[in-house]
Amino acid sequence: MADVEEYIQDEILSNEEMRKVFIGGIPNDATDEEVKTILETTSGGSVTDVQIVRKERETGKIPFGFAVFETSEQVDDLLLARGSITLKDKELDVNRAVPKDNTWIGAREKTKKLFIANLPKDAKEDDLMEYFEKRHPKKYGTIESLQLIKEKNEDGSRKDVNKGYGFVFVSSQDMADKMAIQHMTFEFGGRKIELKKSVVSGRGGRGRGRGGGMMRGGRGGGYGYQQQQGGYGGYGGGYEEYGAGGFACDTWGGGYGASGFIGGYGPGGYPTGAQGHRYSPY
């Protein structure tokens, strides 16, 4: 862990939201202490809190829970061991917990692609890459590439001027999970930047934002998460232009309920944030 000290430790890393994991597949007869022990043994760190939801037994569903580690690095170490974390001969399903206040429709997506927004027009890929690399030890995942979308000249050629958004491609889904929380908002180039998971078209529903632009797969303006932010004028319709280049699968369309939370149940029958849990599983 000596090399980790060379990396910039963002203040958010000490927050509970970066130290909390969701645990699925817990055996019915497992105790809180047994869950805590296996997590500590696997991560090599300390668990400060464990909460197991056992009411699922009444409906025949497997109990699930949440655990808070002493440091965010211990969560990273735990996730590196995924696939070998077993309790009473049952493999535990461990993921970073999604903070309740993260109501973005794609917060629980499994992806290695993120969408970055509100970038300065003169931002450079190399500078942004350096910003991320200084904050993420390579043992836990890497930033594979960045793509900042450029404005066009009248003849269709690209300018060296950003449209203000782009994509970040990372080496693993765990890396995307971490970055979507750690860098949900951050300062870069004198601006407040936003980073969210990229979402497949059709998953975001239909909606209108302030931008008023047309997007494939529905109507949308700005970035489309308009019920929370009111949309971002000026960037609407950006994906339509890049559809032929393979970006038609991405959209920041709406899809929130009136409360801003996603209802129903996620994969494996675990209830999402709308059901009252502080953190939501995948």
Description:
The chain has helices at about 30-45, 70-80, 125-135, 175-180, 225-230, 240, and strands at about 20-25, 45-55, 65-70, 85, 90, 95, 100, 115, 145-150, 160-170, 185-190, 190-195, 215, 220, 280. It has about 280 residues and is an alpha+beta fold. The chain folds into 3 domains: about 1-95, RRM (RNA recognition motif) domain (Alpha-Beta Plaits); about 105-200, RRM (RNA recognition motif) domain (Alpha-Beta Plaits), CATH 3.30.70.330; about 200-255, no CATH class. The protein is elongated. About 35% of the residues are buried.
Keyword list:
single chain; about 280 residues; alpha+beta; Alpha-Beta Plaits; 3 domains; 5-stranded antiparallel β-sheet; 4-stranded antiparallel β-sheet; 15 strands; disordered C terminus
